[in-house]
Every structure is written in C-alpha cells, then in structure tokens.
Amino acid sequence: MSVPRIAIFDSGVGGLTVARAVHARLPGAHLRYLGDTARLPYGTKSAGTVTRYALQAAAALLADGAHIDALVVACNTASSCALPALKERHGFPVLGVIGPGARRAVAASRTGHIGVIGTERTVASGAYQQAIAALSADAVVHAQATPLLVGLAEEGWFDGPVAEAALHAYLGPWLAQPGAKDIDTLVLGCTHYPALKDAIGRVATALLGRAPTLIDSADAIAEELANRLPSALAPDPAGTVELLATDALARFARVGGLFFPVDRAHLSLVDL
User: What residues contact 217, with CB distance under 8 A and at least 6 apart?
Assistant: First the structure.
C-alpha cells in the first residue's frame, strides 16, 4: 500500500501549527508543506490576488507529478476566498480551516456569543460568520481584525511586552463593546495565532473577567484527515516531512522550528 501524501500550504510559518497536528495524528503520512514567505502576509491582499497565490502554491506542491491524497489550505485568508477555485482545479479533496474551526466554536460556546480574530481579509470576507450561522442560527459572531499578530508570530515574538501591547490595543476597545462582553468562545482565525495562544488567553481573560475557550482548527483538520486516510494513523518509516519556503530559508527554519521539529524534515527553497 502506498504512503498517503498530504500537501499543506500557508502564507508563512503559521500553518506549521496545522502541519504539527496532522503529523502527530497521522504519523504514517508523507507531508509536504509550503510556506509562501516571499509574499506574506496574505491577509492584506485582495481576494483575487490571494486566489492566484493559492493556485500557484498548489501547483508548486504538485510540481513533481506526485499523487496527492488531500490538500490542506492552512491559511484562513486563502480558505475564505480560494477554496472554490482550488476545488474546481483539482480532483483530490481540498480542506480549508474555517469549517472545522466554526464547528468547534459552535460546539464549545454556551452563550452563543462567539468572537473571531483574524486578518483583514478573513474578517472582511465574513467566512466565519457565514460558517457559524449555517451551524447555529442563534449564534452571534463578533469579529475583529488583528493583522499585526501575523508579523509578531513570524518574528517569533509569541509573548512579552510587544505582544501584550498589540493584544491590548486590538482586544481592549473591541471587548468593551456591548455584546462582545458576552463572548465565551474565541476563534483564533489565523494559523499564526496559536503561537500567541498563551498571551491571547491571558489578555482576553483580563479584559472579559473570565477565561474564554480558545479555538484553533489544527486538531479538527487532523481529525478529518484521519477519517479520510486511516492507513496513515500507524507510524510508517516511509512517512516523511518535506518543508518548502519561497524566501528566507534560514529564517523559516529558525522561526518554524518553534512550531514544528524542522530538524527532522527535508527543507528546501522553491520559486513560484
């Protein structure tokens, strides 16, 4: 039986949080990950530009003609606008991160008030709002763009005074608004954000007066892949990890190593 092959892409190192969860859940799969570090962030780009980037990233992951069993769009921004084009272009399963994140948020919320933080493009797309509304008509979604957090994660500044200041600047005025004070579940709507999970949780708890449930979709994506590819659940020495970046390979290895054991992967530079 051939080793299942899973391709994953993101705008940078943030999607390695998804790769880490997938690798832990499906240790018998071959993973190929692409971080488009030359063109990040995606969150400030137009939907058309992000879709073009996503199609190019998928093409690069398939460049050697290898069979792919599933493609994971680990970028929330690309998931919000590029999934239809990717699914139309390719015959294998294409999974985004918004649906799984929305399902977990609805299941976790007791009040029905769900907060979403993400990039400008993800928040403006309304993708989480639509996904959550489709699951629960009574849910109230409060969304806030927090784009600077991507840069902090890419720098490896997961905590400390700079991260705290940025979080207070974004979350303070937002969580003081009527309705937003009732949030009990907070979706980390960017795959970079789990790197700042401790700081986000601490600041949100201080502002709300209670600890919200933090949701990221990495584990949910891994579980969905496990259901699709049960042969990858058992460890297999043929299962390998390949990491690709479009720029700044040394920096990708340094910061990416905080998300994922880069030293155990084959790392190379690609040009889109």
Answer: 18, 97, 98, 100, 101, 104, 191
- Kindly give, in sequence order, each residue whose CB lies less than 8 Å from that of residue 51, ignoring residues fewer than 6 positions away: 78, 81, 82, 85
| 40, 67 Cβ separation under 8 angstroms | no
Q: In percent, how much of the chain has pLDDT > 90?
A: 72
- Does domain 98-215 bear CATH number 3.40.50.720? no
> Would you list the domain boundaries of the chain?
5-96+218-269, 98-215
> The domain 5-96+218-269 is classified under which CATH number: 3.40.1190.10, 3.40.50.1860, 2.30.30.30, 3.10.310.10?
3.40.50.1860
**Catalytic amino acids?**
75, 190
pTM of structure:
0.88
Lowest model confidence (mean pLDDT) among 115-119, 126-130, 196-200, 238-242: 238-242
Q: What gap in Å lies between CA 240 and CA 266, rounded to an integer? A: 8
80-111 tens-digit pLDDT: 999 999 999 998 999 999 999 999 999 999 99
pLDDT at 62 over 80: yes
CA dihedral sign of residues 205, 127, 123, 36: positive
Q: What are the structure tokens assigned to 61, written together?
A: 């992951």
Confirm if 186 and 168 have CB atoms less than 8 A apart: no
User: Residue 238 — very low, low, confident or very high, per pLDDT cuts 50/70/90?
Assistant: low
Asked whether the beta carbons of 241 and 1 are under 8 A apart, the reply is no
| Single-letter amino acid code for the residue at 193 | Y
